[in-house]
Every structure is written in C-alpha cells, then in structure tokens.
Amino acid sequence: MASAPIRVRFAPSPTGYLHVGGARTALYNWLFARHHGGTFILRIEDTDVERSTEESVRAILEGLTWLGLDWDEGPIRQAERMPLYRAAAERLLGEGRAYWCVCTPEELAARRKEALAAGHSPKYDGRCRDRGYAPGGRPAALRIRTAAEGETVVEDLVHGPVTFQHADLDDFILVRSDGLPTYNFAVVVDDAEMRITYVLRGDDHIPNTPRQIQVYRALALPLPRFAHIPLILGADRARLSKRHGATSVMAYREMGYLPEALVNYLARLGWSYGDQEIFSREELVRHFTLEKVGNTAAVFDQGKLDWLNAHYLRVADPTRLADLLREQWVQAGVPAAAVEGTEPAWRAAVVVAFRERAKTLWELADSSRFLFDVPVPVDPEAAAKHLTPEAVALLGELLPRLEALPAFTTPALEACYRGFVEEKGIKLGVVAQATRVALTGRTVSPPLFEIMALLGRERGLARLRALVPGVRGEPSARKRRG
Ligand code: GLU
Which of 283, 307, 410, 464 has the most beta carbons within 10 angstroms of its beta carbon? Predict the structure, then answer.
C-alpha cells in the first residue's frame, strides 16, 4: 500500500456554508495531494436528505473555488451511489456480518434508559442479533455484527496510536429503516471504492474510526491510513463557533480578506515549518507534510489573520485589488455607476496610495470612498479640532491659489501649500490638517497631496469652497488666475 498512488478526499456534508474548520481540512487534503503528486477528490456526503441542501452544495463549491482548492475528481455525490451501499449491505447480510433489527426507536430509548439507570452501558443490547429476521412487514434497520472482544489500535498519523476497546462498540446501524445508509457505512464503502489511501479529517471523527474499521474488516477491505486534525478553538478555548465571529469562508471574502491570506492563515493554524509565517502557495505545497501537523487544538487568532491579510494587500497586483474593490466600494455606499465611471488606472493608483494602512479590502474601500462623488460626513470631533474659524479663514485665503493651479498634481499642490505657509509664517500642519478633514471627513489619510491629486481639482475645490463662508460661487464667477 505504501507505493499506491496517494488519493485523498474532502467529504463535506452539505448542511451549511463552508466553515473555516472545513476549509482547513480541505486545504490539508489538497496540500497533501499536491505535495505528493496525488489525487484530491471532492465527495458530497448528502445521504441525510433532510438536512442536505443544494444551496449548501453551491456554497461549499464556491468557497473551495475562491480558496483555489481545485479537485481532481468529483464532486461525487453519495445520493447518486445508493446501489453501491445496497450491494455492500447485501454482501454483509449474506455473509452473516450484518442483521436486520426491528427494535423501534421507542423500545430502544426505553432500554437505553433502563440500562443507564442500572449503571450499564447504554449501547444497543444486541436483541435482534441472533433472531434472523428477514425484512418485510415491519420497518427494519441493518446492523453490523461487531467484534465483542479485543481492541483496535489506530496508528493515527497526527495523534500516534489510539486504542479502542471493542467492548465499547455496539452493533451500530449501517442502513436505516428508510433505506438510507448511515455515515459510518457510506464513508467506508466510498473510501474503499474511491481507493482513498489517506483519510485526513477533523479529530471530532476519531470516535467514528473504530466503527469504520469494523466495516472495513467485515467487508474484507484494505484500510487507509488515518490522520485526524485537531479542532480549531476560539480565544476562550471553546470550539470555534459563530459566537466567536465569522466562521464562514465566504464571510471572510465579504469582509475583504484575500484568499491567499486565508489559505496562508489556515495552513499555519495547526501546521508549521520552522518559524516561517508567510508562505506562497508553491511553498506550502513544497513543505507540507503530516509530520508537522500539531496534535493539539489551534486557537483562531483574528489579529494574525489581519496581519497576513495586510501583508498580502501590500504585495498583491494593484490592478487585481482595484478590480476586487469595485464590489467593496459599492458596499461602502458608493453608487455602482460612480465606481464604474472611474478609470482602471485611477483605481489602481488609489490602491497603491491606500493599501499601506488597510488590513482588509473593506478598510481600503472605506478609507478611500471620499474620493468618489459621495457625501462625506465630517467627524464632528475632527471638525471641532481642525476646522477652527482661524483654520477655515486660512483655507479661504489659500483657495484662490489652489484655483489658480492648472492641475492638481502632487508636486504642484505641495509647492502651493509650502509657499503659502512660508509667506504666512505658519506651520504646514494647520492648513494641511484642515484640508484633510474638509476633503476626507477624517484626521487620518494617506499623504495629503497624493489624495488631493487622486480626488481631482473639481471635487477637491468644491469641498473646500463648501466650507469657506461666502465662497460658494463657480470658479469662473471669481476671477481665475494663471
Ligand atoms: N461528512 C463528514 C463531515 O462533514 C465527513 C467526515 C469524513 O471526512 O469522514 O464531517
């Protein structure tokens, strides 16, 4: 088996969005496959017809695609493979390794209660084991005849050997009375049929592993290797959930994270390669091995994800980011027509000017939205501090000089401001900060003359004029110099 080509799978149940934990499992499978030149298979575990939805299937595919985790086979849907499970069930039945059980849920519940009250294990008591029921008439579930004694040792590639006592296992259900296979049955039939060599999944599935091994043995199938990846926890060390913030991969996209940042972050959440933090996708593929997957739960650290995202924002192609930002600007309240009315080159220049200070695309969009023709709310505290009557009077004096500038270029603006403050014998900061608040509504922005150049002459002058009392006229009405 060691020389068999490596085949791994990601097998989500389509009952919700793609969770960051699921995405990390998918990523580790993908990295493992790519590292070894193996095959990564996507299998949709949709036998739970009540909880599975097509919307969820779409959401999962969308999430994987956004992260760039391409699969080589699939999506294979369990719902379309019922004949396979049926054939395996018949085989087990024919060989006496499974049997029909006609106990009703009520009977089972009552016996479980009794057993607990008597201090016994609440597991199925094997009542139908040797009764030889044939299906017909009553609803019946198919149960496996499990080994009663001995133990199973799983050589988990992350956790090391894990021992399970067979006495703790019960004759669990393989096929429910409605004819649908259970997870523990379908997963084995599929993993075997797909020739999966390594099962890498969350360690919440450790307790299922000895049961699945019973099914492998009953069907005389070769076992894959198992590697169970520790869970992701929130800062309070409880299992990561919505309570801790966003857990859906696509929510991160909406908040303005880049897929390469999330991939890098999730890769390092439970795996390491020395103390390296930043990895290109190629580096991850090159270095990813199971030996370096840790065996303790990892804590989700939003700050670190932000740090990585800020890094990737700074190094990404500005044209690509500008393109992604179109959606984010609209989210930030800029009319779509106003966004689309700008030139791609201008949008890319905005990215370059603003990205140094942003942790997410959203912050980038929010901090630069004032560049568009939108109402710019002025922070009252900033106004009180920087738009004092004296500062506004100075802006009023400066305004004709700005109007006289033939173009709003960074050097021309800088020269104009510097000349003005020198003449007046005042500090640049006073007028610069007043201008910044007037144009952006805020006290913090990229360098003033750069943003003035991006904002453009018309919009820049209009915002300054609106501020200075009695200077509301058209520039043509007030003599333009130069
Ligand atoms: N459908 C299972 C889940 O979503 C798959 C578990 C496995 O990989 O075996 O957790």
Answer: 464
CA 14–ligand 1 middle distance (angstroms): 10
CATH number of the domain where residue 170 is located: 3.40.50.620
DSSP 138: B
Which is the closest atom of ligand 1 to the Cα of 12? 4
Is the residue at 367 inside a domain? no
Same domain membership, residue 274 and residue 209: no
Alpha helices in 53-155 (DSSP H): 54-67, 82-94, 105-117
Are 295 and 397 in a shared domain? no
Antiparallel, parallel or unpaired: β 141-144 and 160-165: unpaired
User: 73 - beta bridge partners?
Assistant: 41
Q: Give the residue from 206, 229, 252 where a domain finishes.
A: 229
Enclosing domain of residue 204: 81-229
Instruction: Using the mean position of ligand 1's atoms as its centre, give its distance from the Cα of residue 13 in Å.
Output: 7
Residue 78 per-residue DSSP state: G
Alpha helices (H) in 157-297, listed in sequence order = 183-193, 209-218, 249-254, 259-268, 281-287
Full-model pTM: 0.92
Total number of domains in the chain: 3
Q: What is the pLDDT along the chain (482 residues), one digit of tens a residue?
A: 446 799 999 999 999 999 999 999 999 999 999 999 999 999 999 998 889 999 999 999 999 999 999 999 999 999 999 999 999 999 999 999 999 999 999 999 999 999 999 988 888 999 999 988 887 778 999 999 998 789 999 999 999 999 999 988 999 999 999 999 999 999 999 999 999 999 999 999 999 999 999 999 999 999 999 999 999 999 888 888 888 888 899 999 999 999 999 999 999 999 999 999 999 999 999 999 999 999 999 999 999 999 999 999 999 999 999 999 999 999 999 999 999 999 999 999 999 999 999 999 999 999 999 999 999 999 999 999 999 999 999 999 999 999 999 999 999 999 999 999 999 999 999 999 999 999 999 999 999 999 999 999 999 999 999 988 765 444 443 443 33
Catalytic residue among 242, 292, 424, 427: 242
In a domain, 2, yes or no: no
Angle between helices 54-67 and 20-35 (to 10 degrees): 50
The reply to whether 418 and 472 lie within a common domain is yes
242 is catalytic: yes
Tell which of 211, 229, 247 closes a domain.
229
Residue 326 lies in a domain: no
List the structure tokens of 47: 């036998």
Chain-centroid distance, C-alpha 136: 48
What's the CA-to-centroid distance between 201 and ligand 1, angstroms?
A: 7
Shared domain for 177 and 46, answered yes or no, is no
CATH label of the domain that carries residue 479: 1.10.10.350
